[in-house]
What does this fold into?
Amino acid sequence: MSKIYDAIIIGAGHNGLVCAFYLAKAGLNVRILERRDVVGGAAVTEAFHPGFKNSVASYTVSLLQPKVIEDMRLADHGYRVIERPISNFLPQEDGGYLMLGGGLERTQKEFRKFSNHDADVLPAYYEALENVANVLRSLALKAPPNVGEGLGTLVSAALQGLPISKLPLEQKRDVMDLFTKSARTYLDGWFESEAVKAAFGFDAVVGNYASPDTPGSAYVLLHHVFGEVNGIKGAWGHAIGGMGKITQIMARVCRELGVEISLESPVEQVLVEDGKTTGVRLQNGEEIIAPRVIANVGPRLLYERMMEPADLPADFLKRVKSFVTGSGTFRMNVALSELPRFTCKPEPGVHHQSGIILAPTLDYMDRAFCDAKIHGWSEHPIVEMLIPSTVDDSLAPPGCHVASLFCQQFAPVLPMGRNWDDEEEKAADIILDTVEKQAPGFRASILAQTRLSPKGLEDKFGLVGGDIMHGNMTIDQLWSARPVLGHGSYRGPVKGLYMCGAGTHPGGGVTGAPGHNAAAVVLKDRSPLRRVFP
It folds into this structure.
């Protein structure tokens, strides 16, 4: 007779591993089924040229929840993150540059090159953002109220709304602005320099196929600042060993608790009988039995490709099909014989350890999006370069480097019936041309490259539309409405079916929060009167 598990988790990405950890720690017998031959989902490190390796998709650390790091004792197993000495470096079209981060005084000094006013208002801007970010932090590790549960919904909504209700009126206005306004409108209310607005506005288009003029894009800006590194709020850092080091450690911790992790085990279908999940069937025909199935894949992938339509409520399925995906992301890694030499700042320095943003103004970002809608991508795309080998010598041979190129505003689906498989090389050339303009000689230093178009990200990692967030981070797809109103508390529309991926609250990024929260809901449903982990 086949072994019966307490829970099956589809996908060994970081949220699936976090969920498995908490369930196993509570005594459940858990098995994770992973389609690929390696754990980690989109948080993996892979070799791509002799002596060179790098993070393949996700590439930087900030949003991983401190509670998850502590509970899983990741640091005891080798987890280490080096924070960036400055956050971002933005070359400008006039030959100058702006550096953001490294402390308030340092940033104000940089801003004064562009605007005394912007330097003077920076403390107030940081305070406004931090006040709202604190509200997000207070909600990140809580299951949203599930609309439709009567009094329970009202009580949960009231409790979770308490931090907002206690804010002074001015800060409530900031909450409203950040959840509804475009990034440009919000930033125009604070700053006058185009370079300064671009430095902050870049976060609004990360993983967001949208213009900084798109209403609601200010929230995406906010989403990217509520993390921390080594106790420093809002900081970003490089994971030593790449992002895959984090998920390899998580897998080790899970296995120590008895979690079974099966690689090369793609799930074909979630099995449902009499309105309840009974397990899954793999693509090889094997059926694995469990009363709970927890999906660490995007909602579109789960409900449209892994389930029979007859097993789902018609209205729910209709709304899932309307769940918007596609983050407009194109991802490259390059092996380099030397550090890039930027025309505006050619010598090695702290800027090489930062996020190097090739998008000097909000207008530049807007044009990139408009071009992508019409042509598939822009001749002047948005490029962020990170060079993690500047702080991690395990990634490249001595004297050489690896660089991540995280590029935005590439159409999830190309217009006029074109296929990304045919166009990927052309788009990659445009990206490299964009870097070359700011760092002459960059192309000549490339020893090898990898590239993943939006379709490539879907094929490799199961990210529908190449969406690194598992679904757009718009106000209609957040909190209790992520992915569908009435199923925002990690419970699917079938008894025993749960979701723990980035398509649930609080959304995308390597946070571990959906995995943590989904485990709490599973344990609460299993023993309603028993206190789950704090």
User: Anything to note?
Assistant: The two ends are 37 Å apart (CA to CA). The chain has 16 helices and 21 strands. Residues 116-140 form the longest helix (25 residues).
